[in-house]
Amino acid sequence: MTTGNDLIQRFEMFANPALAESWDHVGLQLGNPERPVKRVMTALDCRPEVVQEAIEKNVDFIFNHHPAMFHAAKTLDVRDPQIAMYQTLLEHGITVYAAHTNLDNANGGMNDWLATQLELTNVEPLQITGIDPISGRDYGMGRLGDLLQPMSPAAFGQWCLEKFQLNGARLIVNPADQKQLIKRVAILGGSGQDFWQLAKKRGADAYVTGDVSYHFAHDMIASHLTVVDAGHHIEAVCQDQLASLLKKWRQENDWDFEIITSEINTEPFKFIVK
């Protein structure tokens, strides 16, 4: 019999919670990890529509990237959709676990997966944060690497659309740099605008991240750093990657449970054109 604790303990050997940022809330979100696990679903987000999918597919353990309980609840008023979602999860005996910035920082984790999607070579951490207490290796936020071949900012923007299978993205580029070739690329999944100066300092010609604000974009332009705001949702790569890890560990440990990936698209933004 495999329990939620079995999965959690093995995963935390890969992405220790100690690797998470101090402000984050990773690990068990709600439910009982001592219960047997028969079907696991990997997901980027734990939203009401994802929970409904889990119920319909008889899932008893949701393994997601973004914490379901990122902000502490001050009341348990079930008229609030978020609180109602917690109630639904508990009513159906579904355990929820989140691996957020510990997965971002982990070697072989989120940002390595994103760097692989861009086919970057000579990849290294963008920022070395510390030493993994289990592996003894350096870990850090973001990645820095080389493109297979240099390309213009416009071509690089198209490359990102193709590799991340996006319908649109925001390209931030100084008009004077439109013919400059991009070779060295920094990438940080999620909201990474605070790291743009580090990307520039580390020699990146372009930076890929999400959630770039208006004034930050002006500063990037003034500093001649090309940036592709590919959105937060590119982190959905974690669904298949986490499923692959769980399948590997299932085989190694002779565990008996099913693994599926969420089919719900939780991207909140839609691109419209005139």
From TrEMBL:
It holds the Pfam family DUF34_NIF3. One of its GO terms (cellular component) is cytoplasm. This is GTP cyclohydrolase 1 type 2 homolog. Homohexamer. Signal peptide: none annotated. A divalent metal cation binds at residues 65-66, 104, 232, 235. One of its GO terms (molecular function) is metal ion binding. The keyword Metal-binding applies. Keywords: Metal-binding. Belongs to the GTP cyclohydrolase I type 2/NIF3 family. SUPFAM superfamilies: NIF3 (NGG1p interacting factor 3)-like. It comes from the Bacteria.
